[in-house]
Design a protein that fits this description.
This protein has a single domain, classed as 3-Layer(aba) Sandwich (Mannitol-specific EII, Chain A), CATH 3.40.930.10. Helix content is 45%, strand content 23%. The longest helix is centred in the first third of the chain and has 15 residues.
Length: 152
């Protein structure tokens, strides 16, 4: 699965106004639900929160990759946001985050889940891509930077 199949401009938020990790996970669940009305917003939030309780998904460089499995989901779904202000996320490098890519996968997904996380991390570990995303003026630009980086 390519990133353009995982996200859409409708599941990207530019300069999301949040002040805590929990509120961020709630907003990401809402963002996914808005474009996928069949998605149980509360179950999505709970899945992300439950995984986060096992250990922070902050991967460093101002990036977090919250993820979880969701019963009844028939395909992987993602959402991305840049944040209006940095948020403390207990990241591996102890730095606050400025962007986040949330991923939900079907409950039975195992290897696919790990491959998707690795693909997303690869895109967001690139210094130039992160700089372009943070310099973007709207969600359509962010979508292009995310999906073009992976294709190129």
């Amino acid at each position: 699965m390519q990133l353009q199949e995982l996200i859409s401009p409708e599941r990207i938020e530019f300069s999301m106004p949040v002040t805590s990790k929990k509120r961020l996970l709630e907003q990401l669940s809402t963002l996914m639900h808005a474009d996928e009305p069949g998605l149980d917003e509360y179950a999505a939030f709970q899945s992300l929160l439950d995984r986060e309780r096992l250990g922070s998904t902050g991967i460093g460089h101002g990036v977090a990759l919250p993820h979880g499995r969701l019963k009844g989901l028939d395909k992987a779904i993602g959402a991305f946001a840049t944040l209006e202000k940095e948020v403390d996320y207990d990241s591996i490098d102890h730095e606050p985050i400025k962007m986040v890519f949330a991923l939900l996968v079907p409950e039975q997904a195992t290897e696919d889940h790990l491959q998707l996380l690795a693909r997303i991390a690869n895109v967001l570990n690139d210094d130039a891509t992160r700089a372009k995303i943070l310099g973007a003026n709207n969600k359509e630009e962010i979508y292009q930077y995310l999906t073009n980086r992976e294709a190129g």
